[in-house]
Design a protein that fits this description.
By secondary structure, this protein is of the alpha/beta class. The chain folds into two domains: about 170 residues, 3-Layer(aba) Sandwich (D-Maltodextrin-Binding Protein, domain 2), CATH 3.40.190.10; about 100 residues, D-Maltodextrin-Binding Protein, domain 2. Helices cover about 40% and strands about 20% of the residues. The strands form two sheets. A five-stranded mixed β-sheet has the order 2-1-3-10-4, with helices on both faces. Helix 5 links the parallel strand 6 and strand 7. Helix 1 crosses helix 9 and helix 10 crosses helix 11. The radius of gyration is 19 Å and the shape is globular. The protein starts with a strand and ends in a 17-residue tail after the last helix. The relative contact order is 0.20.
């Protein structure tokens, strides 16, 4: 079987460990997929741009961010759900900030990785769900966690949404304070691929997906993995246990139509996409 290279990207976080393990064990290679992985510390906004610019063939990224970007013209399709449980966003502030209550954040300055990223979208969706409207000038681009820490510390920004367990070591070490949490009202991660790779190598994409789904199934039935996650991602065993036991990965390529309609509703309500905006095909038809 001739190997086809697939350039896959994702955040450098524990959610993607099943893929790294499958790569390390040579499972992709044995199925004719030469998987090249790229870490995207800047999150979903950085990955949608990489898909548009043909720097990657596929990415694992936030559901709402990918749906928004396909509607805005990204020549890609969702090919599978990846993590089917909601993402818990930690809502953070700097340790020297006088901000204490979650309910007081909505007139403050927000640190976001980039416009259209998860840290941007979820702040708007969360505010909207509580009857508040955020203005564009309330957002400051900080690129990633490494930009957020000094921005919050210097009081240039007040609020930062980032995945709860990824930021937990910074909360534990006293570099950040968590003042609230917000759960996405939909499954948090999907896998998306460019129209180009889907047209040129559909069979290889199917083999890549089957490998990911098989490894995710194995991952969910292997509780010994908790110590491995703790070691690799510098997290306390208790935190990893909580995360592992509240997270479910997809083991097939089905994508819920209702889920996508829910995301589109929230994006429209938050005025991230227009009410009359045309919705293209979002999901790859095998």
């Amino acid at each position: 079987m001739e190997k086809v290279k697939i350039r896959l990207g994702g955040v450098p976080e524990h959610f993607n460990l099943p893929i790294h393990l499958a790569k390390e064990k040579g499972i992709f290679s044995s199925r004719g997929v030469e998987l090249e992985w790229t870490d995207f510390g800047g999150g979903t906004g950085q990955m949608t741009k990489a898909l548009r610019d043909d720097e990657v063939d596929a990415c694992i990224l936030l559901t709402e961010g990918m749906i928004k970007d396909i509607i805005k013209g990204n020549p890609s399709k969702i090919i599978s759900e990846y993590v089917t449980t909601p993402l818990t966003w930690g809502i953070h502030t700097g340790v020297n900030n006088s901000l204490v209550n979650y309910r007081d954040i909505f007139d403050k300055q927000y640190a976001i990785s980039r416009f259209g990223s998860g840290s941007h979208l979820m702040a708007i969706v969360d505010a909207d769900s509580k009857g508040h409207r955020l203005e564009k000038e309330q957002f400051t681009i900080i690129k990633d966690i490494n930009g957020a820490l000094p921005s919050l510390d210097n009081l240039d920004t007040d609020v930062f949404y980032w995945e709860k367990y990824t930021t937990k070591p910074y909360v534990d070490s006293g570099q950040l304070r968590r003042i609230g949490e917000y759960n996405t009202p939909w499954p948090c991660f999907v896998i998306a691929a460019t129209d180009k790779i889907l047209k040129e190598h559909p069979d290889t994409i199917v083999r890549m997906l089957r490998t990911i789904h098989d490894e995710c199934d194995h991952f969910m039935h292997n509780e010994h993995i908790i110590s491995e996650v703790s070691k690799r991602y510098n997290q306390k065993i208790k935190d990893v246990e909580r995360w592992y036991n509240s997270t479910e990965w997809a083991i097939h390529g089905w994508v819920s139509e209702k889920m996508m309609r829910s995301v589109i509703y929230h994006l429209q309500t938050a005025e991230i996409i227009g009410e009359d905006e045309e919705i293209p095909d979002l999901v790859w038809k095998r």
